[in-house]
């Protein structure tokens, strides 16, 4: 209520003043007195003739009521602008949060990639906040065109100074386009290993197994080597076990294969990856669709025929490419890997899903430690035989 009354009084005051033509009548005498006083101070001749009594007379003749009225109008106008700017800022911030929530809900409902969701949401928020700040500055009475020009020139200087930050932004765009990894993948970059939590505009956030939050710039991720452990469905595990010389290698092979066979998480002999089955089913479905004749219009049949030919060509290309690649053999494997100075090194290899990698690795390692000695196999350790020869004095 108080704000409404104040706004109404300010509006009435400005209306009456403009209607009566009092603005010019108030400001002109003040301006004339100020100009005359300024000339008197800056002019050497006038300065010589200037006396305290004359200054006092000039100040006495000045229209202080007009000055106070003008100052009051300026203060009221500035106060109204500040109130309006604060109101617009908070309303705009509320609208930005709503837009952020709606866009996020739409992306989640449409099953957008999580990496793309975090990147676009952060970009939208920063853009909208920048537009809101420009709007608030305009409400305060600052010329936005000159401000934008200043901001653009400052942006060039800041861009040169922050070339690394711009490189991180470009790296984030490349990561979203090329997709070397996505949210939820377990990656290794340099000395850091962890699960990708967010892909932001400038950085990628990963969470290590120790629940440590590591922030890595996108520029380095887009130009350096990344090991993505989650890119493939299955991973091969490898154990190197040393047994003593003289132990039965065939017995060690049987014990290792039994340990692997008892673990249901390890892929067994003759396993066929579901990806291969899906590719075969896709090729069969494509060929069946190409043989079907849909009862539609001429243009739809024409586009469908072209689409079917493109799909068939792509399937043939994928099949030819698969023939060039060696077929993966998921059969567990045990063999002699090396003959060291004091041990025979046996390598044990098996396949499992990447989610089960560490669980399988540690469980099999523990079972090897328990069952090898139970079956008469020995783990050697470095030792040195010292022979002492006594010589009698003649």
**Mean pLDDT over all positions:** 75
Query: What is the highest CATH level, the class of the domain at 234-273 and 328-383?
Result: Alpha Beta
The percentage of residues in β strands lies in 5-15%
Estimate the helix proportion, in percent.
55-70%
- Which assembly state applies to the chains in this document? single chain
Helix and strand pattern: HHHHHHHHEEEEHEEHHHEEH
**Order of adjacent strands in the largest pleated sheet:** 4-3-2-1-5
Span of the ends, CA to CA: 125 Å
- Specify Rg, calculated over alpha carbons: 41 Å
CATH topology of the domain at 234-273 and 328-383: the name is Alpha-Beta Plaits
State the helix count. 13
The strand count comes to 8
Query: Poorly predicted ranges (pLDDT <50, ≥5 residues)?
Result: 1-23, 277-294
Q: What is the CATH architecture assignment of the domain at 234-273 and 328-383? A: 2-Layer Sandwich
Form type: elongated
Q: Largest sheet, described in full?
A: 5 strands, antiparallel
Structural class: alpha+beta
């Amino acid at each position: 209520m108080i704000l409404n009354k104040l706004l109404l009084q300010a509006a009435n005051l400005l209306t009456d003043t403009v209607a009566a033509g009092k603005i010019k009548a108030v400001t002109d005498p003040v301006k004339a007195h100020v100009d005359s006083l300024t000339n008197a101070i800056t002019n050497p001749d006038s300065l010589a003739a200037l006396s305290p009594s004359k200054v006092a007379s000039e100040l006495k003749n000045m229209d202080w009521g007009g000055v106070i009225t003008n100052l009051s109008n300026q203060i009221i106008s500035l106060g109204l602008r500040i109130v309006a700017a604060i109101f617009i800022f908070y309303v705009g911030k509320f609208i930005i949060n709503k837009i952020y929530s709606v866009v996020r809900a739409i992306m989640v409902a449409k099953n957008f990639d999580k990496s793309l969701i975090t990147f676009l949401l952060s970009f939208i928020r920063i853009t909208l906040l920048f537009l809101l700040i420009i709007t608030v500055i305009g409400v305060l009475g600052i010329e936005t065109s000159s401000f934008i020009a200043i901001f653009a020139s400052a942006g060039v200087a800041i861009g040169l100074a922050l070339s690394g930050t711009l490189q991180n932004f470009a790296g984030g765009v490349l990561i979203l386009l090329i997709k070397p990894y996505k949210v939820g993948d377990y990656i290794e970059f340099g000395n850091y290993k962890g699960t990708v939590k967010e892909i932001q505009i400038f950085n990628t956030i990963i969470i290590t197994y120790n629940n440590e939050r590591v922030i890595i710039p996108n520029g380095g991720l887009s130009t350096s080597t990344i090991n993505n452990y989650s890119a493939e469905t299955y991973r091969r595990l490898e154990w190197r076990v040393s047994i003593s010389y003289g132990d039965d290698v065939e017995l060690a092979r049987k014990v290792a294969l039994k340990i692997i066979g008892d673990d249901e998480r390890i892929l067994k002999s003759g396993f066929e990856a579901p990806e291969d089955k899906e590719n075969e089913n896709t090729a069969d479905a494509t060929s069946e669709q190409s043989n079907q004749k849909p009862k539609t219009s001429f243009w739809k049949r024409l586009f469908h025929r072209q689409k079917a030919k493109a799909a068939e060509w792509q399937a043939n290309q994928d099949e030819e490419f698969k023939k060039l690649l060696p077929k993966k053999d998921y059969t567990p494997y045990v063999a002699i890997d090396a003959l060291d100075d004091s041990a025979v090194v046996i390598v044990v290899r098996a396949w499992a899903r990447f989610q089960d990698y560490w669980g399988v690795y540690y469980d099999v390692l523990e079972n090897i430690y328990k069952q090898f000695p139970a079956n008469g196999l020995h783990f050697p350790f470095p030792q040195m035989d010292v022979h002492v020869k006594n010589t009698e004095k003649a």
